[in-house]
Design a protein that fits this description.
Glutamate Dehydrogenase, Chain A, domain 3, Rossmann fold, about 15% strand, 17 helices, alpha/beta
């Protein structure tokens, strides 16, 4: 590690004590940049690492709202506007009790490089609140009502609208922020500003949304992984695959894998994992989508079927006896070093991250050392934000592309991300190392723009 990187990492840890997710994300990127920093001394001369690590703006605000019992509730809202060197801030909004500044800074930092890799003109940002729409504040075992979610979203937007716009910051959905929440947020923005703009992505088709957006992150993960396999003259036909998660990313990754001839053995949620020895069928996948999208129950409810083995409170990685490919699509740090050792021992040769930073540093080190096909999240799960970028383009032009057009553009973008990561790794003597390749390719585009724009 260079003295420059070592110094910046130490300064980052000291300035951001108590933010482990953020420090982990910074460490993962900076420790791969020595080769490009060595041949580009202008980056150190312009303090690019220090400036790139520090968000351009962090906005924290209170969100007061009234529940269905007339009780005033107060949550904390955030928007981290990280880097706008190559375009307006772009990144999702997350509503979950786990939301805090460390998590949002890690996500925003990752978003800068992810958006850079898409080849589209988008900067990086992230936001959200510790509000939990899945838990009613007054009725145990119930969810917030639609009206409670609407009142919260309207209050959240009452502050956020001052800081966003189609050429400034374009939020999207993320964990627990789907079409319903985006609709309420967009309606309040329109009401406050008296204008219709493409200020939010993930909208419903009836008012400016894009086809393929719900599928995009899951599909994109598989498209990227398909390109990795092609470099080794392989396809997904006949491959045994395990997936974590059961929301949009996981379910659409499973759907695409089935279409490509692979067998999907697992899905999971916070209650545990299901394992189907002969493979999850399209019919079972449809049942799971219904369960998660309407009833929103736990996968434990499926254990009544003899064909389905349910394992409580376990991730999928050590459930299946052997498999070829793994797709962590749930949450950060869900796949650890022990899991990685099991996977490598039992035949896994491809890992495509559908979630953000789902693998711990120990797991990543093992994947890289083993030289398996390992796609980090900033590259493999960029399909969602890429399609959000396509939605922005459609809104700007007041046009609407067909499903086939959007899917073709998504597939092309994921190939470009793969090829750019592959070429960057090869250029710096790390052929096949997608971690280094993705980090360098994403970093250099932003760094060059920052140098060109001066100290700002």
């Amino acid at each position: 590690m260079s003295k420059y990187v070592d110094r910046v990492l130490k300064e980052t840890a000291a300035k951001n004590a108590g933010e482990p997710e953020f420090i982990q994300a910074v460490d993962e990127v900076l420790t791969t940049l020595d080769p490009v920093l060595k041949v580009n001394p202008q980056y150190e001369a312009n303090a690019i690492l220090e400036r790139m690590i520090e968000p351009e703006r962090v906005i924290i605000f209170r969100v007061p709202w009234v529940d269905d019992k007339g009780i005033v509730r107060v949550n904390r809202g955030y928007r981290v506007q990280y880097n706008s060197a190559i375009g307006p801030y772009k990144g999702g909004l997350r509503f979950d009790p786990t939301v805090n500044l460390s998590v949002l800074k890690f996500l925003g930092f990752e978003q800068v490089f992810k958006n850079s890799l898409t080849t589209l003109p988008m900067g990086g940002g992230k936001g959200g609140s510790d509000f939990n729409p899945k838990v009613s504040p007054h009725t145990p075992g119930k969810r917030c009502s639609d009206n409670e979610v609407m009142r919260f979203c309207q209050s959240y937007m009452n502050e956020l609208y001052r800081h966003i716009g189609p050429d400034t910051d374009v939020p999207a959905g993320d964990m627990n922020v789907g079409a319903r929440e985006i609709g309420y947020l967009f309606g309040q923005y329109k009401r406050l500003t008296n204008e219709w703009t493409g200020v939010l992505t993930g909208k419903a088709l009836s008012y400016g949304g894009s086809l393929v957006r719900p599928e995009a992150t899951g599909y994109g993960d598989i498209y990227f992984s398909e390109n990795m396999l092609a470099m080794r003259k392989q396809t997904f036909e006949g491959k045994q695959c395990v997936i974590s998660g059961s929301g949009n990313v996981a379910s659409f990754a499973a759907e695409k894998l089935m279409q490509l001839g692979a067998t999907v053995l697992t899905l999971s949620d916070r209650s545990g994992s299901i394992y189907v020895k002969d493979g999850i069928t399209p019919e079972l996948l449809a049942e799971i989508k219904h369960l998660k999208g309407v009833k929103r129950g736990e996968l434990a409810d499926l254990k009544k079927s003899k064909a389905i083995k349910f394992i409580a409170k376990k991730n999928p990685w050590q459930i299946a006896p052997s498999y070829d490919c793994a797709f962590p699509c749930s949450r950060q740090n869900e796949l650890n070093g022990e899991d990685a050792a099991y996977m490598l021992k039992n035949g896994c040769t491809l890992v495509g991250e559908g979630a953000n930073m789902p693998s711990t540093p120990d797991a990543i080190a093992q994947f890289v050392k083993a030289k398996i096909m390992y796609a980090p999240g900033k590259a493999a799960n960029a399909g969602g934000v890429a399609t959000s970028g396509l939605e922005m383009s459609q809104n700007s032009g007041r046009i609407s592309w067909s499903r086939e057009e959007v899917d073709a553009k998504l597939k092309g973008i994921m190939k470009s991300i793969h090829d750019n990561a592959w070429e960057a790794a090869a250029k710096y003597g790390q052929k096949g190392n997608y971690v280094m390749g993705a980090n360098i390719a994403g970093f250099t585009k932003v760094a060059d723009a920052m140098v060109a724009q001066g100290v700002c």
